[in-house]
């Protein structure tokens, strides 16, 4: 199969998105003291970890699915067992980390908005590290069964294409059950938190006018987008499990096909969410762009922290 135009567009979008993603990560880590009132250290830790997991998840889709479909490296994959070993240890695990990471970053954002004092006192650096370790243990631990079965790189003439799968059919069912559970829990929890966040923002900006009132629109769009992607992913995986049980190979492969398009979108969305929601990041990026790219001297403008009528800080 050739390298179709839609794949080129998707890969280009992913490359640009992850460059932007890691620029934001570097910016947050280098300026966390200056922006401490806007971005807590726990948020920066979770956002950085999510960025790494999102990148690995998107890379796994390319390496273990897209490359095979495009017809690249087939002989290399067949001749080198370490590739199937790496697939077993990383693919579903990083996919799960991406999905659960959406829930945790949403929970972080929810806590900063609804209970900033409790969040600042309780969600400390050590707590953030513990949450990441716990998240990693869960996402790798639920796939313990994979460590006792080999993966294979096979050709399916009904598609037709090459792909990675488990050497035993029953283990593929276990994979699907684990991923479905993670998808539905994360989708429901993230959806509820996003609704509460939007309601809180709506209350905050209820009496605002002009640009301040319009600033909530990007939040609504991106929360709707992330929640929709998570629910679509959960539905896709449910259909995939049903088709696998009934051995409807064409439907299972169709769900895989769409899943490997929507997962990279979920991985990329957070970079744009940060830019649209944070005026401080937009101002700083504009300043650095004018200074280092266009070589112009401009006064740097710092954004002010918005407060509610109860004088609570809004931390994005």
TrEMBL record:
Pfam families attached to this UniProt entry: 7TM_GPCR_Srv
Entry superkingdom: Eukaryota
InterPro entries: 7TM_GPCR_serpentine_rcpt_Srv
Keywords for this protein: Membrane, Transmembrane, Transmembrane helix
The UniProt record lists the keyword Methyltransferase: no
Keyword Transmembrane helix: yes
Segments traversing the membrane: 12-30, 42-64, 84-107, 127-149, 169-196, 217-237, 257-277
The protein's name: G-protein coupled receptors family 1 profile domain-containing protein
Organism the protein comes from: Strongyloides stercoralis
């Amino acid at each position: 199969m050739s390298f179709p135009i839609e794949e080129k567009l998707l890969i280009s979008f992913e490359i640009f998105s992850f460059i932007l993603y890691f620029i934001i990560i570097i910016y947050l880590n280098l300026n966390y003291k200056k922006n401490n009132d806007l971005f807590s250290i726990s948020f920066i830790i979770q956002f950085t970890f999510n960025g790494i997991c999102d990148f690995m998840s998107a890379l796994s889709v390319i390496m273990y699915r897209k490359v095979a479909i495009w017809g690249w490296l087939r002989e290399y994959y067949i001749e080198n067992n370490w590739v199937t070993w790496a697939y077993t240890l990383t693919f579903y695990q990083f996919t799960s980390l991406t999905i659960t990471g959406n829930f945790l970053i949403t929970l972080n954002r929810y806590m900063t908005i609804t209970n900033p004092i409790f969040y600042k006192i309780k969600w400390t650096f050590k707590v953030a590290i513990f949450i990441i370790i716990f998240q990693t243990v869960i996402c790798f631990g639920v796939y313990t069964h994979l460590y006792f079965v080999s993966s294979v790189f096979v050709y399916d003439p009904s598609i037709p294409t090459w792909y990675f799968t488990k050497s035993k059919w029953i283990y593929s069912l276990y994979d699907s059950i684990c991923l479905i559970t993670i998808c539905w829990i994360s989708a429901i929890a993230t959806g509820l938190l996003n609704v509460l966040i939007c309601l809180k923002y709506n209350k905050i900006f209820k009496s605002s006018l002009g640009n301040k009132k319009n600033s909530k629109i990007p939040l609504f769009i991106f929360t709707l987008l992330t929640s929709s992607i998570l629910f679509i992913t959960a539905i896709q995986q449910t259909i995939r499990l049903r088709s696998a049980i009934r051995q409807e190979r064409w439907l299972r492969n169709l769900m895989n096909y769409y899943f490997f398009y929507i997962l990279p979108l979920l991985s990329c969305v957070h970079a744009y969410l940060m830019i649209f929601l944070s005026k401080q990041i937009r101002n700083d990026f504009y300043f650095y762009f004018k200074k280092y790219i266009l070589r112009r001297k401009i006064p740097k403008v710092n954004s002010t922290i918005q407060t509610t009528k109860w004088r609570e800080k809004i931390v994005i």
